[in-house]
């Protein structure tokens, strides 16, 4: 007997990254990204009452997004912002897996890359 499963979603979680712009792109609002690094993991989530953007620059994440530990406790973003209206999330010499979890009824999509000693993205995998 053959079974087929069809998953239907109004929105998808497909994402891509621009190495030059350090920007994650989606065709739909980005509401939740899960970031895994060598020694840390975080969620970047859109605050309640705000609409998610279709692109997020990783070196200047807007303040409408919150940074949460994997246990969902909200981190003090001020330490990342350094007095600015956005904050830089990229660290030097690190490895990243970014998973888009924005739309719960769609499969997750991920991108993998690393950064060099200047926190520039040097390798991106589809």
Q: What does this molecule look like?
A:
This protein is mainly beta and 126 residues long. The protein contains 1 helix and 11 strands, in the order βββββββαββββ. It has one helix spanning 78-81, and strands at residues 15-18, 23-30, 32-36, 41-46, 53-57, 61-62, 65-69, 86-87, 95-100, 109-115, 121-125. A 6-stranded antiparallel β-sheet has the order 7-4-3-9-10-11, with no helix packed on it. A hairpin with an 8-residue loop joins strand 9 and strand 10. It starts with 14 loop residues before the first strand and ends with a strand.
Could you say which structural class the secondary elements and strand pairing correspond to? mainly beta
What does the overall shape look like? globular
Largest sheet: 6 strands, antiparallel
Secondary-structure element pattern, one letter each: EEEEEEEHEEEE
User: What's the Cα radius of gyration?
Assistant: 15 Å
Helical fraction? under 10%
Mean pLDDT metric: 80
Give the number of DSSP strands: 11
Low-confidence stretches: 1-9
Q: How far do the termini sit from each other?
A: 35 Å
Question: What strand line-up does the widest sheet have?
Answer: 7-4-3-9-10-11
What is the number of helical segments per DSSP (H or I, 4+ residues)? Answer: 1
Strand content: 35-45%
Task: Please render the helix and strand layout as text.
Elements: E1 15-18, E2 23-30, E3 32-36, E4 41-46, E5 53-57, E6 61-62, E7 65-69, H1 78-81, E8 86-87, E9 95-100, E10 109-115, E11 121-125
Antiparallel strand pairs: 1-2, 2-5, 3-4, 3-9, 4-7, 6-8, 9-10, 10-11
